[in-house]
């Protein structure tokens, strides 16, 4: 039995499908099982990683756990890990972040600090572990969906900011291999998982336009305005300003690109063009 937290999120849904396709038994955790919309083959169990409830039922009989802080587990991560140890879980695969560098710079980065703390807690558990350190998610572009649907416009300060966006299906594929890894090759490893090519934000906007058959333009705004808009959508202020600063610092640079998707899964990483076509319905 493999337990998947964040099962109704972008990565979690893909991971649940891929594990089931491999013949694994999956217990998918959701705050609202009745509206989860997950495959019937998955056992869907109510659990809230933002609360203080027990995770005993969710983890009972499980061999492996996929832990995603996006499910709200930042505060409860220690409790979840303790419950996993108590339940006899053998392995944890943590959805971590490319922002984790293992250097003092991690202390200055909001996103890195959160994931470093989780990584340390998993290491301290004594369980087998793999940290999937994902790069910029292609799904971040979903934040543009409302503006694209309404007016064909994306607002931001740095259209030439560059990244190597990674498809959620590739992150899920790497996690699938780590959860099912019988050889132990991925135990104790922390692969950096990226998309296959550098794409500017303007390039991402253009790719979405091609996917939906509409012109989509990039409207430049100040860094301060962009950060405040992120805060208004619920991102902590420190994280919002650091994210905008990251975009600015990436202009004219070459982002880290790895071949970990190919190496671990045996298939090439999906391009942003593929992601845009897969998600065209979200922007129409």
UniProtKB/TrEMBL annotation:
<dbReference type="Pfam" id="PF13460">
    <property type="entry name" value="NAD_binding_10"/>
</dbReference>
<dbReference type="InterPro" id="IPR036291">
    <property type="entry name" value="NAD(P)-bd_dom_sf"/>
</dbReference>
<feature type="domain" description="NAD(P)-binding">
    <location>
        <begin position="6"/>
        <end position="180"/>
    </location>
</feature>
<protein>
    <submittedName>
        <fullName>Nucleotide-diphosphate-sugar epimerase</fullName>
    </submittedName>
</protein>
<dbReference type="InterPro" id="IPR051604">
    <property type="entry name" value="Ergot_Alk_Oxidoreductase"/>
</dbReference>
<dbReference type="InterPro" id="IPR016040">
    <property type="entry name" value="NAD(P)-bd_dom"/>
</dbReference>
């Amino acid at each position: 039995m493999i337990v998947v937290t964040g099962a109704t999120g972008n990565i979690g849904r893909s991971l649940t499908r891929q594990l089931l396709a491999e013949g694994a038994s999956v217990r998918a955790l959701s705050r609202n099982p009745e509206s989860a919309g997950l495959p019937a083959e998955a056992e869907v169990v109510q659990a809230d990683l933002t609360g203080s409830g027990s995770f005993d039922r969710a983890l009972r009989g499980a061999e492996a756990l996929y832990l995603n802080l996006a499910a709200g587990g930042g505060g409860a991560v220690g409790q979840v890990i303790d419950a996993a140890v108590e339940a006899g879980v053998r392995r944890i695969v943590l959805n971590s972040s490319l922002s984790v560098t293992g250097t003092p710079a991690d202390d200055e980065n909001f996103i890195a600090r959160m994931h470093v703390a989780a990584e340390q807690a998993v290491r301290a558990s004594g369980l087998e572990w793999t940290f999937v350190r994902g790069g910029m998610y292609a799904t971040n572009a979903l934040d543009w969906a409302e503006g694209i649907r309404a007016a064909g416009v994306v607002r931001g300060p740095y259209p030439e900011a560059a990244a190597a966006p990674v498809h959620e299906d590739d992150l899920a594929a790497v996690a699938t291999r780590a959860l099912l890894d019988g050889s132990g090759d991925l135990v104790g490893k922390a692969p950096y998982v990226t998309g296959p090519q550098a794409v500017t934000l303007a390039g991402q906007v253009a790719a979405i336009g091609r996917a939906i058959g509409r012109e989509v333009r990039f409207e430049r705004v100040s860094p301060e305005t962009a950060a405040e808009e992120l805060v208004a959508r619920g991102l902590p202020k420190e994280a919002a300003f650091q994210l905008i600063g990251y975009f600015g610092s990436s202009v004219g640079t070459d982002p880290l690109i790895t071949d970990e998707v190919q190496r671990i899964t045996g298939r090439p990483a999906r391009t942003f063009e593929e992601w845009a076509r897969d998600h065209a319905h979200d922007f129409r």
